[in-house]
Amino acid sequence: MGSHHERDTERHGFQDVIRLVVIGLVVVAVVKELRTPPAEREWNGVVAGFVPYDFRVPTVARFKERVWAPQTEHLINPRTFGVGWTVNAGRVVELVRRKVEAAS
User: Fold this and answer.
1) Contact by Cβ (8 Å): 77, 66
2) How far is it, in rounded angstroms, from Cα 9 to Cα 46?
3) How far is CA 99 from the centre of its chain?
4) How confident is the model over 77-90, as a mean pLDDT?
5) Rounded to an integer, what distance in angstroms lies between the CA atom of residue 52 and that of residue 47?
6) Beta carbons within 10 angstroms of residue 59's beta carbon
């Protein structure tokens, strides 16, 4: 077992790698959009074959669709703004509510 300091160093190293990967994905997504003719740029899509990105100005409707949509089946949705995914908190709350009701 390593010391507390060694574990913290490993944790920070992992966080640094994740941060670099995210920055790289952002750069790739922006370059992808800038290489697209201006009239065809959508500022949302997928990079690396599966990682979603969305650089459009966030809207309340898109936020609700991705972060608070208890009626959908998806627990993970594309982020409202940026690269990657976010948790559909509305779906999580709905599943917990159903579980509590079933246990009652």
Assistant:
1) yes
2) 32
3) 26
4) 98
5) 6
6) 10
pLDDT over 70 for what percent of the chain? 93
What residue has token string 């992992």?
14
Place of tokens 């779906």: 91
pLDDT digits (tens, 9 = 90+) for 9-30: 777 899 999 999 999 999 999 9
* 58 touches 66 (CB < 8 A): no
Rounded to an integer, what distance in angstroms lies between the CA atom of residue 36 and that of residue 49? 17
Residue-wise pLDDT tens digits, 31-59: 999 999 999 999 999 999 999 999 999 99
On average, the pLDDT of the chain sits at 93
CA distance 34 to 42: 10
Closest to 91 (Cα-Cα) out of 54, 56, 66, 61: 66
Q: In whole angstroms, what is the distance from residue 93 CA to residue 87 CA?
A: 11
Which tokens sit at 17? 């790698």
